[in-house]
Design a protein that fits this description.
The protein is an alpha/beta fold. The protein has two domains: 10-42 and 269-364, Aspartate Aminotransferase, domain 1 (Alpha-Beta Complex); 45-267, Type I PLP-dependent aspartate aminotransferase-like (Major domain) (Aspartate Aminotransferase, domain 2, 3-Layer(aba) Sandwich). Helix content is 38%, strand content 16%. It has 13 helices and 13 strands. It has a seven-stranded mixed sheet, with helices on both faces. A four-stranded antiparallel sheet has the order 9-10-13-12, with helices on one face. A hairpin with a 4-residue loop joins strand 12 (331-333) and strand 13 (338-345). Helix 4 (90-101) crosses helix 5 and helix 6 (141-147) runs parallel beside helix 7. The N and C termini lie far apart (58 Å). 46% of the residues are buried. The structure holds pyridoxal-5'-phosphate (PLP). Pyridoxal-5'-phosphate binds at residues 37, 89-91, 115, 158, 162, 189, 191, 219, 221-222, 227, 232.
C-alpha cells in the first residue's frame, strides 16, 4: 500500500475517543453537575489564592522538574521526591507509562469495567488491550493473572475503580503483584485513594517503594478539587521515573498548577473536610436510594453506581432523561459495559437531596 496521504498507526485508529461526562442539561433552570466526580467543596482557598498570585508571572516558563511540588508531595506522604514524577493530570502519566513500557504488539491488561483511559493509552502506544472479566463488579486477581502471557507488559488497576466504586484490599493487591512476572509493570491508579476509609485498604505507596515494577498514580483532580488545572503525580522506582522524565513534555505541568498544587497539598484540613462530607453523604445516598428499591453498588469513592431494570420507561436511559429534565446531570456508563446503571458523584447537600427526590418520583412514575 502506498497511500497518497499520511496514515496513523493501525492501533491509533482503533481508539474510540474518550467522551467526558455531560456538563449541561438543555432546558433546565439550574444545572447540578454530578457526572465527573468533581468535589462539591471546591479547591482549598489557599490553592485559589496561589493560582491568582501566579497570574503575575505568566510570561515565565514554569519549573520543568516541578521541584517544589514534588517536595511538597514528598513531605505530605513521607516519600522521596526523586521517585515522584508530575504530569498534566494523571491521564498524562498513564499515557507516559504505557508509551515507556508497551511496544508494538505488546499486551496491556485491564478489567471489564476499568477506567477507559487505560485502553486508549495502550492502543496509543501501539499495544494490544486485553480486557479481563470482573467478579461482582470488582477486579478479579485470578482472572487478571490468568490473562498474563509472555507478551504482557503492563497491568492497569484503578483502586478504587471508577465507575464501580469497588476496591481491592491490600492483601489482594499483594497477591496480584506476587503473581505477576517481575518485568510486568503494575500500575495502581489511586485517583480516589484519599476517600477510602477502610482498614484493609492501602494507598499502595509502600508497594511502590519496595518493588521496581509497581507504579502508583495520584491526582489533584478529585479530592483536591483542581481538575481544571490538570495535575497528577506518579510514584515509582527511580528507573521508572527516569524513563517517564525522558519522554514527558519538558514543561508538562504549568506554573499556575504548580503553585496551586503546592498550596493544596499543604491544606490537610480541607482534605479532611472533603473526606468527612463524602463519608456522610455517600452513606446517606446509598441508604436513601436503596429504600427506593434501586440497587446501589457499595462504594468507597466519591460516587455511587445506581442500577436500574432494563424495563422500557424504567431504564437507566429513562432515569437519565428524567433527572436531566430537573437539571440533575449524572453519568451514563454504557461505554464501561454498564448500560443499566448511572454513576452519581456525591454532591453538596442540595443536589443530593434533589436526586433522591427525583429518583423517588421517577420510580413512582410521576412526571
Ligand atoms: C478522575 C480519574 C483520574 C484522574 O485523571 P486526571 O487526568 O488526573 O484528571 C484517573 N483515574 C481514574 C480512575 C479517574 O476516575
Amino acid at each position: 500500500m502506498n497511500p497518497n496521504r499520511p496514515v496513523p498507526r493501525h492501533s491509533v485508529m482503533e481508539i474510540e475517543a474518550y467522551v467526558p461526562g455531560k456538563s449541561g442539561a438543555p432546558g433546565a433552570m439550574k444545572v447540578y453537575k454530578l457526572s465527573s466526580n468533581e468535589t462539591p467543596l471546591g479547591p482549598s482557598p489557599k490553592a485559589i489564592a496561589a493560582f491568582r498570585e501566579a497570574a503575575g508571572s505568566l510570561e515565565l516558563y514554569p519549573d520543568g522538574s516541578a521541584t517544589r511540588l514534588r517536595a511538597a508531595i514528598g513531605e505530605r506522604h513521607g516519600l522521596d521526591p526523586e521517585r515522584i514524577v508530575c504530569g498534566n493530570g494523571s491521564d498524562d502519566l498513564l499515557h507516559l507509562i504505557a508509551s515507556a513500557f508497551v511496544g508494538e504488539g505488546d499486551e496491556g491488561v485491564f478489567t471489564e469495567h476499568g477506567f477507559l483511559v487505560y485502553r486508549i493509552a495502550i492502543l496509543a502506544a501501539g499495544g494490544v488491550p486485553v480486557v479481563v472479566p470482573e467478579t461482582n463488579l470488582t477486579a478479579d486477581v485470578d482472572a487478571i493473572l490468568a490473562a498474563v502471557t509472555p507478551r504482557t507488559k503492563i497491568v492497569f488497576i484503578a483502586n478504587p475503580n471508577n465507575p464501580t466504586g469497588t476496591y481491592l484490599p491490600l492483601a489482594e493487591v499483594k497477591r496480584l503483584h506476587a503473581g505477576l512476572p517481575s518485568h510486568v509493570v503494575l500500575v495502581l491508579d489511586h485517583a480516589y485513594a484519599e476517600y477510602v476509609t477502610r482498614e484493609d485498604y492501602s494507598n499502595g505507596l509502600e508497594l511502590a517503594t519496595e518493588y521496581p515494577n509497581v507504579v502508583v498514580t495520584h491526582t489533584f483532580s478529585k479530592i483536591h478539587g483542581l481538575a481544571s488545572l490538570r495535575i497528577g503525580w506518579a510514584y515509582g522506582h527511580p528507573e521508572v521515573c527516569d524513563a517517564l522524565n525522558r519522554i514527558r513534555g519538558p514543561f508538562n505541568v504549568n506554573g499556575a498548577a504548580l503553585e496551586a498544587g503546592i498550596a493544596a497539598v499543604g491544606d490537610v484540613e480541607h482534605v479532611n473536610a472533603a473526606i468527612a462530607h463524602n463519608d456522610r453523604w455517600r452513606s446517606w445516598l446509598e441508604t436513601e436510594i436503596g429504600k427506593l428499591g434501586l440497587k446501589v453498588t457499595p462504594s468507597v469513592g466519591n460516587f455511587v453506581l445506581i442500577h436500574f431494570p432494563p424495563t422500557p420507561g424504567k431504564s437507566a436511559g429513562d432515569a437519565d432523561a428524567f433527572l436531566s429534565s430537573r437539571g440533575l446531570v449524572l453519568r451514563r456508563v454504557t461505554s464501561y459495559g454498564l448500560p443499566n446503571a448511572l454513576r452519581m458523584t456525591v454532591g453538596a447537600e442540595e443536589p443530593n437531596r434533589l436526586v433522591v427526590q427525583a429518583l423517588a418520583d421517577f420510580v413512582a412514575g410521576k412526571a
